[in-house]
Amino acid sequence: MIIYGSVVSPFVRKLLGYLGEKGIDFELKGVGIGDPDPGFRAASPLSKMPAMDDDGFMLADSSAIIHYLEAKHPKPEMIPSDPQERGQVIWWEEFGDTVFAACSGKMFFNRIVAPKFLGREGDLAAAALAESEELPKLLAYLEDAIPASGFLVGDRLTLADLAVASPLINLRHCGAGIDPEAYPKIAAWSGGILSRASMAPWIAKEERLIAKVLETS
Ligand SMILES: N[C@@H](CCC(=O)N[C@@H](CS)C(=O)NCC(=O)O)C(=O)O
Questions:
Q1: Protein residue whose Cα sits closest to atom 15 of ligand 1
Q2: How much is the pTM?
Q3: Do both 56 and 87 map to the same domain?
Q4: Whose CA is nearest to atom 13 of ligand 1?
Q5: Given the DSSP bridges, would you call strands 27-30 and 57-60 parallel, antiparallel or unpaired?
Q6: Ligand 1 centroid to 45 CA: how many Å?
Q7: Same domain, yes or no, for 11 and 97?
Q8: 58 and 87 fall within a common domain
Q9: 26: closest CA among 5, 51, 3?
Q10: pLDDT by residue (tens digit) across 31-59?
Q11: Which of 8, 18, 19, 48 has the most ligand 1 atoms within 8 A of CB, as the residue to mutate?
């Protein structure tokens, strides 16, 4: 199976963590924004990452890919079969992929991707507004909602944890990492998720990439 994407994308990171937790073999084919790679273009109609080619079956979108793989490889369960837990997991995935990734994306794209990867100016006012207006509300909600179990849903890792922890890395890349004094529950919970063997090596790889990009520009 081929996964197309870049390790700095929150959606790709969520998928990579998921694949690791499930023990599914894959090859990551690195592509950037607007990449002309024909395999990527064929698998992703809107040229967005991640995309997948599973022995000729092509699919784009991290959620679509994960739901496909969850049906194909049901164990260990990352999207619970219990109705209430499943609903909660989908809620958190939606939160992570939409408002949270959008907020961190405004900061990461305008401060790092546009100037350092695409060679154009980012909208720094939009990034500052996202940081001052949107981010505090989202973090306050998350801080309040994290259960004592150390996982967002139930007492074990689910897709919810991967989806919501992933955009935190993009925040960290642009100098807005979680302050453990202000958000002790987010810091403890995300520390546990992001240090898992399914996530940590990818994060280390992208940290080296970002450090290099920032240093050479
Ligand atoms: N809902 C999609 C979002 C994918 C997405 O927006 N990916 C971004 C990178 S983080 C992308 O490929 N952007 C390129 C573009 O918009 O042209 C998913 O979960 O996969």
A1: 48
A2: 0.97
A3: no
A4: 48
A5: unpaired
A6: 11
A7: no
A8: no
A9: 3
A10: 999 999 999 999 999 999 999 999 999 99
A11: 48
The residue to which tokens 């967002």 are assigned: 152
Atom of ligand 1 nearest to the CA of 10: 10
Domain co-membership, 198 together with 117: yes
pLDDT tens, position by position, 177-203: 999 999 999 999 999 999 999 999 999
127 lies in the same domain as 24:
no
Q: In the structure, which protein residues have their CB atom closer than 6 angstroms to any atom of ligand 1?
A: 9-11, 33, 47-50, 61-63, 97
The domain that holds 12 is classified in CATH as 3.40.30.10
DSSP 3-state percent helix, strand, coil across the chain (nearest 5): 60, 5, 35
**Ligand 1 centroid from CA 173, angstroms:** 18
Question: Which amino acid residue places its CA nearest to atom 14 of ligand 1?
Answer: 48
> What digits encode the pLDDT tens for the residues 101-130?
999 999 999 999 999 999 999 999 999 999
Sign of CA dihedral 59, 60, 62, 63: negative
Distance 49 CA to ligand 1 centre (A): 5
Tell me which residue has its CA closest to atom 19 in ligand 1. 62
Cα–Cα distances in angstroms (integers) from residue 141 to residues 110, 119, 144, in the given order: 25, 35, 5
Q: ω before 167 within 30° of 0 (cis)?
A: no
Interval between CA 182 and ligand 1 midpoint (Å): 30
